[in-house]
Amino acid sequence: MMIAVVPQENYEMCLLPLVNTPVLDYTLEFLASSGVKEIFVFCCAHPELISAHLDGSKWTKASSKVTVTTIINTQCITIGDALRDMDSRDVISGDFVLVAGDVVSNLDLRPVIAEHKRRREADKGAIMTSVYKKVAPSHRTRSLNDDVIVGLNTETSEVVYFSSEVESSKIDLDVRLFTEVPKLELRHDLLDTFIDICAPEVLMLFSDNFDYSDLRSDFVRGILGAEILGNK
């Protein structure tokens, strides 16, 4: 069974109506259509509004094929806080989907989940699989906050470099990358969907590193910079 965690840091966005339907419902439908059976909606702000919406929705009815549980902790400010709280509750023991509460997608996650599990079987250090979409840097669907440079090992599709600091005309790369990754490709045409398949080790690493607040700039860069863990 696949479990999903949906952090809600911005309640205005997740309850924003899109074609008369709150965006959060699209996120839940996306997960349900991909075979997810249990979903935790983590509320950091205005939990009463999100809880009221879910309580009156189809997701909490007896006929629902998906179990949706609302978790509330208004002391959490960042995604890091939310994941540490989830780890302390000990409700996740296997791989899980981590997705923002304002994602609208028709992607079938099942092949992505299967690929994540295949990589985990081959390499226990492969603790997270992230979904990116090819989008030109100048495309209007991208905002400045989405601008990233991703370094890929083209033989394995493993992310070996990540930077959201792309305002400069140059980037700093560890020279060891060129010797350790013979087929290195730097990409500036990838849009982060903020859809991730995570191993339970992700939660433990957030608990072990209280300075991790952001999933990308702290966690991903921290993992890429760690030499002793071997996590990918």
From TrEMBL:
Superkingdom, natural source: Eukaryota
Domain spans labelled Nucleotidyl transferase: 15-129
Coiled coil feature spans: none
InterPro entries: eIF-2B_epsilon_N, eIF2B_epsilon, NTP_transferase_dom, Nucleotide-diphossugar_trans
GO CC aspect terms: eukaryotic translation initiation factor 2B complex
Any one Pfam family match given in the protein's UniProt record, by short name: NTP_transferase
GO molecular function: guanyl-nucleotide exchange factor activity; translation initiation factor activity; translation initiation factor binding
Name recorded for this polypeptide: Nucleotidyl transferase domain-containing protein
Source species: Thecamonas trahens ATCC 50062
